Amino acid sequence: MRYIGTVQAVVTAAEFDREPTDAELAGIEVEMPVILAEVELLDAQIMTLDRPASEVDTRRIRRAQHKVLAERLRLANLVRQVPAGVGA
User: Fold this and answer.
1) 52 inside domain
2) Does the N terminus or the C terminus of the chain have fewer Cβ atoms within 10 A?
């Protein structure tokens, strides 16, 4: 009897099995203030899950929401200022 073996492809790193590139790390660094603001908002919201929100909680959530919006606006303006062809 003749056995048919599978043909193995050249072993290369899969797309998900690699370190981030310098460009990806730079992108994360640019977005980090937005990420941190969103984490702060999430923390403020989590604190009110098991109890009614007090006035201080409401102000904390509102302040965190404004911070997220401000950071998203900053990032949008930063992206808009990048000249065409850069990063491509």
Assistant:
1) yes
2) N
Consecutive sets of 10 residues in the chain, 88 residues long: mean pLDDT of each?
59 70 93 97 95 95 98 92 61
Instruction: Indicate the pTM of the whole model.
Output: 0.69
User: Mapping DSSP to helix (H, G, I), strand (E, B) and coil, where does residue 34 land?
Assistant: helix
* Domain region containing 58: 22-81
In angstroms, the CA 71 to CA 14 distance is 34
Q: If we measure between CA atoms, which residue out of 15, 34, 23, 20 comes closest to residue 74? A: 34
CB 71 within 8 A of CB 32: no
Q: Contact, 34 vs 72, CB < 8 A?
A: yes
Tell me 19's DSSP state. Answer: P
Which tokens hold the place of 28?
């994360």
Alpha helices in the chain (DSSP H): 22-46, 55-81
Please indicate, yes or no, if residue 87 is contained in any of the structural domains. no
